[in-house]
Specification:
By secondary structure, the protein is mostly helical. Among the domains are: about 230 residues, no CATH class; about 110 residues, no CATH class. The protein has a 3-stranded antiparallel sheet. The chain starts with about 20 loop residues before the first helix and ends with a strand.
């Protein structure tokens, strides 16, 4: 019989394993899910911040070079000129008398009609009449047209004399509200274009009377008129300046086609052509354009709409642009737009610095990638393609024409020294001190061809195709040959 102490030991069952409560598992999984869901937003935010930092760095470099980044900075950088040295003061006073409605609308902030000639100008007067009659390319002009021009020129002598007096002043700063960016009002541009036409008609009248000295004087008046815009840094002002300078060069073509000039007159024409070199003006105007575009990127969509509706109803393309702009800003993509603009402008500035004329002709190639970009990513930057490309092409074309005209002066000197014989090529002429004068902004070198009567010096033009010196003429189809040419048919 066993004792109580010898009872068998009690064997307990296996220990129970702890069970994790369900709520605790959920708390561990939830942070992982939230992290995965937020990761794209974090990466997107980092992506945007990368561009924000890059833009700030780029803009700091621009300011370090003394260039404006905003339209306010453009306004602050404008030179201050005493009134007695500023040609804009007497010119605006004169233009107020010429077209009071236009200038009163400007002064009171009202909508301005296009400035134009007075009601006493015949509708069919070339250049100034409302019928839009252009000067024929051939010379001499019809007698009836010449008589009409002569009558107008005689009647407007007082106006031209007043303009000449104003042009004697050393500076010209018009009261432009640069801080308004694309909203700046530029009433003086239309008045300058009309005054240019006045001097062109006076030139034609003098040439028809075979008064060479007076004809050259009117071309010099036109060049001084173009110089008024040398201190105006708006891109559209640069385009108007090119119009006036082109009128000077085309006047030289008419002048040299009418009759041979003596040595003194040729020297005078050569100095005139040197003065029409617009040089780095395009680069300065593109800095102002950049500031205006950067300001546009900060506008609200409503203000952007008001800006587009300033001249009438919104176009369909502008409405689409506003829609894209709203979505782009909602997603924070405006910083990408800004970065693209800064990048492209740096490329353009570098090209223009190396070679103003060649760089201008190549702006289209630099801007080509923008056409391939998604406009959703760069809506505002995409807007600037056409105006900037147009300004570059016109700048290069004007410089090409100027270089052709300079070469023509040398051909005329050769002709006079060789008994009327024309050179067989431009290589027969003395090499210019500035070798770039014989280069073509659109190609390797200027071309020269002897015609049945006279000769032509030409540039390949924007299409870079040798059309044998066939120039662009008003009214021609865009697809027609259009070399930049100076033809002397004498």
């Amino acid at each position: 019989m066993s004792s109580p102490d010898s009872l068998p030991p009690v064997i307990s069952g296996p220990p129970e394993l702890p069970v994790l409560p369900a709520p605790r598992r959920k708390r561990r999984v939830l942070p992982v899910v939230l992290t995965l869901l937020s990761l794209p937003f974090v990466l997107y935010g980092g992506f945007i911040l990368f561009y924000v930092a890059g833009n700030a760095s780029a803009e700091a470099k621009i300011r370090a070079r003394g260039e404006p980044v905003t339209s306010r900075e453009v306004a602050a950088a404008q030179p201050k000129v005493p009134d007695d040295q500023n040609a804009a003061i007497p010119l605006m006073a004169l233009w107020r008398i010429e077209d009071p409605k236009h200038w009163e609308a400007f002064e009171f902030g009202k909508s301005m009609d296009q400035a134009g000639p007075g009601d006493d100008v015949p509708a069919d007067l070339p250049l100034l009449g409302k019928a839009g009659v252009k000067l024929p390319a051939s010379f001499p002009l019809p007698k009836a047209m010449l008589d009409q021009i002569a009558a107008h020129v005689a009647r407007r002598e007082g106006y031209r004399a007043a303009v000449r007096k104003a042009l004697e002043r050393p500076h010209c700063i018009f009261p432009i509200q640069h801080e308004a960016g694309f909203g700046s009002r530029l009433p003086h541009l239309a008045s300058i274009k009309n005054t240019h036409s006045e001097f062109r008609l006076a030139f034609v009248d003098a040439l028809s009377r075979r008064d060479t000295a007076e004809a050259i004087s009117h071309l010099e008046d036109m060049e001084r008129l173009a110089r008024l815009l040398a201190e105006d840094v708006n891109l559209i002002s640069h385009l108007v300046r090119l119009v006036v300078c082109t009128g000077v060069v085309e006047g030289v073509e008419r002048l040299l086609s009418a009759a041979p000039l003596g040595a003194a007159d040729l020297a005078r024409v050569e100095r005139l052509l040197a003065s029409t070199n617009t040089g780095g003006h395009l680069a300065e105007c593109l800095r102002t354009e950049r500031a205006a575009v950067l300001d546009a990127m900060e506008m609200s969509a409503e203000k952007f709409i008001r800006l587009g509706a300033a001249d009438g109803e919104l176009s369909e393309s502008y409405q689409k642009m506003v829609l894209v702009l709203r979505v782009s800003r909602a997603l924070g993509l405006g910083h990408l737009d800004r970065a693209r603009l800064l990048e492209v402008h740096e490329q353009m500035a570098s090209a223009l610095e190396k070679d103003p004329a060649g760089g201008a002709s190549g702006l289209g190639s630099l801007l080509e990638p923008l056409r391939e970009d998604n406009p959703f990513l760069h809506p505002i930057t995409s807007m600037m393609i056409k105006p900037v490309e147009r300004a570059g092409t016109k700048s290069a074309r004007m410089e090409a024409l100027r270089r052709c005209a300079v070469a023509v002066v040398e051909v005329e000197r050769f002709r006079a020294a060789n008994g009327g014989r024309l050179p067989t090529s431009l290589q027969e002429l003395p090499a210019p001190t500035d070798r770039s004068l014989r280069t073509d902004p659109f190609g390797d070198s200027l071309k020269y061809r002897v015609l049945d009567v006279g000769y032509v010096v030409y540039s390949l033009g924007p299409d870079r195709i040798d059309d044998g010196g066939v120039p662009k003429r008003p009214g021609r189809e865009p697809s027609a040959p259009q070399d930049a040419a100076i033809a002397i048919r004498r």
